[in-house]
Amino acid sequence: MIGIRFETNAEKYYADYMEVVREFEPHLVDKEGGERLFLQLESDGEQVKVIISSALLPSNYYEISQKIDISRSELAKIAQIKRFSKVVLYDALKKISGVDLPYGSLTGIRPTKLYHDLLSQGKDAQKEFEEDLRVSASKTKLIGDIVKNQSSVYLKEEGVADVFVNIPICPTRCVYCSFISAEFSKIKKQVPAYCDLLTKELEDCKKLIAETGYKIRSVYVGGGTPTCISDDDFLRILSLCDFGQSEFTVEAGRPDTITENKLKIMDETGVTRISINPQSFNQSTLDVIGRRHSVDDVYRAYECARKYSFDINTDLIAMLPGEGFDEFAHSVDCAVAMRPENITVHTLALKKGSVLKVGGYDNTSDELAAKMVDYAREAVQKAGYSPYYMYRQKYVSGNLENVGYALQGKYCLYNVDIMEETTTIIANGAGGISKKLDLSRNLLERCANPKGLDVYLARGSEVFDKKRAFFTQGAND
After folding, report:
1. CA distance linking residue 245 with residue 203, whole number of Å
2. ∠ CA 310-314-317 to the nearest 5 degrees?
3. Domain 153-426 - what CATH class?
4. Which of the pair, 193 or 354, is modelled with greater confidence?
5. What DSSP character marks residue 128?
6. C-alpha to C-alpha distance for 365 and 371, rounded to whole angstroms
7. For residue 66, what is the enclosing H or E element?
8. Would you state the CATH architecture of domain 1-93?
9. What is the pLDDT of residue 172?
10. Percent of the chain at pLDDT above 90?
11. In degrees rounded to 5, what are phi and psi of residue 419?
């Protein structure tokens, strides 16, 4: 481990630069007392120069310049400067650490969105990713394959929207979770009031959609674990989710919450897609991560769900505590054998606030993480699944990614829409973030509902009024 102390004269890009620095952990760590590494940014409007100085560099000095495309908008020029200087910083950190990261200088959540953008500009996206952004050939191919596979469902159009409904409640809290989701037993008395307010917000949402004329493409009920609330509350919420959509997903998640009654309710209310998420098919792992269900529960829930016409997604996580390659490969093989329509392979991210992060769990074995996700990709693709969406997170094992795979014709519209940011999102419930697409300005504006249940309940109809103003008057959060 090498300690550095990163500094720059370009304070407005400091957070962006620090994302690059953090990607190199644990090989490099930014800390007090580390060797100073200074990034100096100079620009005259037509050219940008980056100078990086540090005693850790072979010649103590690293300098490179690039012309600025002055024909582009001011925002585009800023993006060019930021992207270029991040690449220069990446190259310097690579020299110091001797580590070559799979995604190179890319730190954003949505690498496929950038790939789409480059293609829309008539550029050679593959070449830019590999040569200019330093992304590995294998990851560039994965991104390119996803973009190609999305072609049948990719839609970027104003007037089209998705509806998100958040039920941030779970039976228990998983040790890797940092979401706002609350444990049912701790907020049991608040659940009826939450469901009451959420149904009112959905009723207002219907009026808003009628007034604005949005065409709804998909509805996604997530959380949390929506299926952990009572049958009555579950039914009245789902009954309000008919917006004329072609896809209707409920993130059932925990198999121990999936009952015959819940399945009947979802079937009767038009749900087309559900998630049954084991995360692992190893019982010892499930016990460690706090899932509070058995492997048998996964199979039971899956068999019950197969009586209906739902498409099913199954989530797995690489690098869970106590699992080596063989244990993870076993989970992948079990998921493939079940043959759900979708298999999503996540790589563990140690988020602030999670039990694992607080407890000091080490998920930084890059070689093992890469071996796991490579095995998963090969196994699911051999079984007929294709990668169709992806996203990356901070503090993820091996600097890797989360990838959704699907059988032919079974791509989830909502997953593509939200990851590529191609549609308006009308969000409901605590923690929901509405997004309004403005193609004329190439902007996606945001309006957030309160995160916590307490604040959401306290503000009541103010939440609806703020969202209504956002969509009808252009107000922003």
Report:
1. 16
2. 165
3. alpha beta
4. 193
5. I
6. 10
7. strand 61-67
8. 2-Layer Sandwich (3.30)
9. 83
10. 79
11. -75, -35
- In this structure, what are the phi and psi dihedrals at residue 314, rounded to the nearest 5 degrees? -125, 125
Asked if 396 and 349 touch (Cβ cutoff 8 Å), the reply is yes
Quick check: bond before 122 cis, omega within 30?
no
Task: Find out whether 2 and 56 touch, Cβ atoms under 8 Å.
Answer: yes
Q: Which amino acid is at 167?
A: I
Cα 202 to Cα 54: distance, rounded to the nearest angstrom: 56
Kindly state the average pLDDT of the residues 99-125.
Answer: 95
Task: Please write the tens of the pLDDT for every residue from 45-76.
Answer: 889 999 999 999 988 888 999 998 878 788 88
Of the candidates 219, 331, 203, 305, the residue with the CA atom closest to the CA atom of residue 270: 219
Sequence letter at residue 117: D
**Residues 307, 263: Cα–Cα separation, whole Å:** 9
Which band of pLDDT confidence, cut at 50, 70 and 90, is reported for residue 223?
A: confident
pLDDT band at 475 (very low <50, low <70, confident <90, very high): very low
| pLDDT, the chain, mean | 93
The answer to whether 282 touches 327, Cβ cutoff 8 Å, is yes
pLDDT exceeds 50 at position 476: no
3-state secondary structure of 243: coil
Q: What is the largest CA-CA distance in the chain?
A: 69
Extended beta strands in 278-413, E state: 311-318, 342-347, 386-391, 402-406
The answer on pLDDT for 24 being more than 50 is: yes
Query: Could you give the CA distance from residue 120 to residue 167 in angstroms, rounded to a whole number?
Result: 36
Tell me the C-alpha distance between 258 and 300, whole Å: 9
Do the beta carbons of residue 201 and residue 464 sit within 8 Å?
Answer: yes
Identify the residue with better confidence: 91 or 440: 91
**Domain spans, the chain:** 1-93, 100-151, 153-426
* Entry pTM: 0.94
- Neighbour-count burial of 380, counting CB atoms closer than 10 A to its CB (0-12 exposed, 13-18 middle, 19+ buried): buried
The alpha carbon torsion through 40, 44, 47, 53 (nearest 10 deg) reads -10
Are 288 and 276 a contacting pair, CB within 8 Å?
A: no
pLDDT of 474 > 70? The answer is no
Task: Please report, as a single letter, which amino acid is at residue 86.
Answer: K
| 1-93 and 153-426: identical CATH topology | no
Predicted confidence (pLDDT) per residue in 147-203, tens digit: 999 999 999 998 999 999 999 998 887 778 766 678 888 889 999 999 999 999 999
Q: Which residue has the tokens 């103010």?
A: 462
**Residue 418: helix, strand or coil by DSSP?**
helix
